[in-house]
Amino acid sequence: MKRLTSLFSTLLVAGFIATSCAPATATPIQGQPDLLPRIEMTEGPAEKLVSIGFTTSLTGNLSQEARKQSNGFLLWMDDVNKRGGLLLDNNIIVKFEPKFYDDQSDSNQAISLYEKLVLEDNVTFLFSPYSSTLADVVAPIANQNQKIMISAGAASDSIFKKGYSGIYQIYTPASKYLNDSLDLLAKKDPTAKRIAIIYENDRFSTGVVESLKNYAESRGFEIVAFESYNSDTTDFVPLIKKLIDIAPDAIFGGGHAADGQALAKQIYENSLTVQFMALLVAPADSSFINIGQGAIGVVGASQWEPTVQFEVNFGPSVVSFNQAYQAAYSEEPTYHAAGGYAAGLVLEKALLEAGSLDQQKIKAALDSTNIVTFFGPIRFERSEASHGLQIGRKMIYIQWQRSPDGTFIKQIVWPEEGKSADLIYPMRSNSP
Which of 249, 274, 338, 405 has the smallest count of CB within 10 Å of its CB? Predict the structure, then answer.
């Protein structure tokens, strides 16, 4: 098992709540390519170890996505340290050490731990926890203590409409998450007008579907169901029976990995037939195929896919990142992992532009960010009304299909210019 994977394994086995590592001289990952040029120094520079604090959900309902996001954080730090660090002005080299805790997928725990990171551990920078709900509750702590926080796994627009000056979003905002999937349906079948929106009752999912509902109504769709469910829901049968009676043309919604998988699986098992289904988060993860035939035809909103290609002008290529991640963790990266690494790249670029650790100079550099990474274009809104909101990115939509040999394959079906396959429509015969 590779070194970074072992870090999380040790945490879970030993039952530690907190850990940190100080990779002043990071151990290279076997077989990993150089992602950016190494620093060659002829004189001994002053080396500074900079701490980045965050929480991750090692336990709880967000653990699947959060673990992968944290993998991305840690891989980026390891890559920078392995290259020799970042050379700033005055011959200072910066290397990074992580300081993180298990927030247990719980808001109160996250608040307590970010206060600890800032007030007791005195970390220099912050990465956000995974999910809009957790990022939203810790954002005031970062803001009040004038700490820059790069928000990787939080898509909610509302976080960035509260006047914060040092919080920056990596993901495409929630208001844009599912809207284009409605365009995908409309293009494929202009007669499919009756849609049901079924969603997890949390900040992120609610923000997505409220935007979707408004957009659908403006496009002439009929909302035949608009219902939420609690985050800990595992039995969707009562809700599915309602949908069978309503007989929508399409279903949109979901929330996160666990609930999305259960919802899609039970829709199939209970023979609810729809022409089209687009869900948040769950379908984009490779584990979605664990639900079996219920995965076929489901469309998922994805921030990024390993097969997507961008003309990168900062950081590793898509291929290099994929190779490095697989070498480190023995699994294919998801957008959660890619977003974590991209958060590091954004901070790296700002540090190099600022040439120092001065927070105001770094903020100015972040405000001016305009780069294309392997994760896609990244730019931030500068206005006071939505400062730090991501404005450079668009969503990708995937669909689970069967390859000619019968295996499950995840295909990009939207946007048109980047698709790897045509949309299967209707999605399937929903009979187990």
Answer: 405
